[in-house]
């Protein structure tokens, strides 16, 4: 049955009053505790980190009519690519000539840190208790209902605490995240014990309510996954589920022979084994498995991620906190375009790619429809191994986030300094620190530069053009170099630089233009649709526009 679509820009069509926590209120002064260490990844011990300047387009007052990110972007004066970060908001000139001939502004000195260190106690911001993601009247399915004979299922990733599969049938394609709930499972065999199998711990249903609610809040913002449905699955696995699990594990072992299997084999599922399954829109291929062979792809992925994060920062006070290459998906939604004017400063919208940000298990956000919103945030202090691990490059970013919580600046602490939960009350993951989004944007920038397989001359030109952007993104920059404080700052910079037009920022996603027929938002789990009242199925129609660069 045809569905009526609604033309949207980004986010919700109408927003009620929502007071967001300003980055200024979340800023912490450097701790009085002395951290002395030697680490080749960090700055020299005698280098005193300078507190960064906070520039943000987020409102810091509680006025009745909050401006949208679009309106704040329109207050920016477009400037020359080599700009410095300022704390003043100027008026935008919307003529084409101004956009193509940006001018340079002066930079104000960064503010001095307060003389008295402040401590943020976790209890000062009370996180919302998540609702149970699985209501008692929800039907319980079996694996044969989720993927019956004739449907295709493929395991594509392993998230923070979930396995990720792609399911396809004649109704479309969906991504499902499978989380094992607290329930019995077969013990490991001797062979599994010998191989060093490490079982991911099961989770309670209430533990997952936060991610479900964040998914719902983000569903209307372009660049985030479309949330379709959630349901319970119980019982033994099907043959197809077991086979795709084994294929995935063998492929991962070829890439990393020392890699351990963290999720139990489906052969161990019992009739009483229960799972929570989240059905999401198909997001394409993870950046980890996508071949970056055109510099226009690098430009679009970086800018699309920055714009999506900036919108989410404003609308729901969002921080992803786990945005590595496995949680960022890319798909081709239209043919690439050739840049007609090589002298044009615009670099956005040529690749035909779109991005989707996945996995909000470690994220932080707050309800945009509440007058006095309280945040939902995963407490990362519950498992400090996240900060002491060195198994992957993104582990450094986890330490950078926590170091910022402790010290209030970019200089991060090595693993041995992350063994004390809450660090004497300095750490609260419920607080809004959009600087964490800047850290992950820097990670994405470096990852794409390292894994680019196109013409190396194009990469050299890209790095030259974005040199000043990287100076303010780089977490390892000298302490006298100012840092972006949020993804919104990054978006303001790229608009001022002329790389993205104002219309591209405000008109939908900027990289989209995909046909709705190719962007299914209805559940494809047939038994789920027939057994549930239509009023309980989430529909979030979104029509993306295709602004010409």
Automatic annotation (TrEMBL):
Annotated transmembrane regions: none
Basic and acidic residues bias locations: 37-53, 120-129, 191-201
Name of this chain's protein: non-specific serine/threonine protein kinase
EC number(s) from the headed UniProt entry: 2.7.11.1
Reactions it catalyzes: L-threonyl-[protein] + ATP = O-phospho-L-threonyl-[protein] + ADP + H(+); L-seryl-[protein] + ATP = O-phospho-L-seryl-[protein] + ADP + H(+)
An annotated GO BP: intracellular signal transduction
InterPro entries found in the cross-reference section: GSG2_C (IPR024604), Kinase-like_dom_sf (IPR011009), Prot_kinase_dom (IPR000719)
Gene Ontology molecular function: any one: ATP binding
Transit peptide found in the keyword field: no
UniProt keyword ATP-binding, yes or no: yes
Organism: Pyricularia oryzae (strain 70-15 / ATCC MYA-4617 / FGSC 8958)
Record keywords: ATP-binding, Kinase, Nucleotide-binding, Serine/threonine-protein kinase, Transferase
Region Disordered, residue ranges: 1-64, 93-137, 187-207, 528-549
Cellular component terms (Gene Ontology): cytoplasm; nucleus
Biased composition regions of type Polar residues, renumbered to the chain: 24-36
Domain Protein kinase: 150-549
Alphabetized PANTHER family for the sequence: INTERLEUKIN-1 RECEPTOR-ASSOCIATED KINASE, SERINE_THREONINE-PROTEIN KINASE HASPIN
Cross-referenced Pfam families: Haspin_kinase
